[in-house]
Amino acid sequence: MRFKKLFTTLCLSSLLLSLASPAFGEERGFLDVLTFFGESTTTHLRSRSIIPSERVWANASGTAKLDSTLLVRPLLFQDGERTPAEAARRERPPVLVLSFGLNGILYFSDHPNVYLESYRQLIQEIHEASPDTYVLVQTVYPVADGFLQKDWRFSVSPKEINRRISLLNENLPSLREDFDFLDVIDTASPLTDEGGYLKSDFTTDGIHLNEQAYAAVLERFRQYVLRK
User: Fold this and answer.
1) 109 phi and psi angles, rounded to 5 deg
2) How far apart are CA 169 and CA 5, in angstroms?
3) How confident is the model at residue 1 (pLDDT cuts 50, 70, 90)?
4) Which of helix, strand or coil describes residue 192?
């Protein structure tokens, strides 16, 4: 309900136009209210999608890891560095999309409650800094089958990583119980093949996404908004 009210206030006219002209809606409607923050698959939205770079938060390394230090690590902006909370306070994004999981998937497997608590702490700090920001948490994308991996650095197989990712994705909806300004959006399913792997035509190296994959992800956001 809160997201529906927010979206209606911000871009109802654009949404109506998008129904008549999908291309216009993609560029001027639902995307205009979204800001993204997450791991490298989020940072690549800057160069592999139509999302403006200023609405994709990233640090110097181009990726981020959800842990107890994330809240104090600086993000880079054109006019300087800010922590996530400082960025939220200054930017006041209408909708902030969070996408974390792969970088910490082994830790989550061993400490699921601690990992989810780190997510809650991040969400709470964002909310305290920008109370009107609505938070969308993305499900975690799977990785591709082993023969597509170009630089595999995990100690377990892609199949096992995807099993753990599925478990994390099953737990993410529990975040809704703690916050009335949050929802979870399933952006993993459109990229997943019948075997549970990232589809081969959606990846550049077995983990990271290409332009076609990002188009599918943004289409998922469009569908989500229209349902709301």
Assistant:
1) -60, -35
2) 27
3) low
4) strand
Three-state SS for 56?
strand
- The dihedral over CA atoms of 185, 188, 194, 198, expressed in degrees to the nearest 10, equals 180
pTM of the model: 0.88
CA atoms within 13 A on the CB side of 150: 7
Hunting for tokens 């109370």 — which residue is that? 131
Cα 11 → chain centroid: 21
> Are the C-beta atoms of residues 195 and 135 closer than 8 Å to each other?
no
Pair 23, 5: CB distance under 8 Å:
no
Nearest to 68 by CA among 120, 126, 135, 138: 120
Q: How many CB atoms lie within 10 A of CB 132?
A: 11
Helix, strand or coil, per DSSP, at residue 146: helix
State the average pLDDT over residues 166-176.
97
In the chain the first and final C-alpha atoms are separated, in Å, by 8
- Distance between CA atoms of residues 37 and 85, nearest Å: 12
Tokens of 100: 């974390």
At 177, list the tokens: 């119980």
CB 127 within 8 A of CB 178: no
Report the distance separating Cα 8 and Cα 100, nearest Å: 28
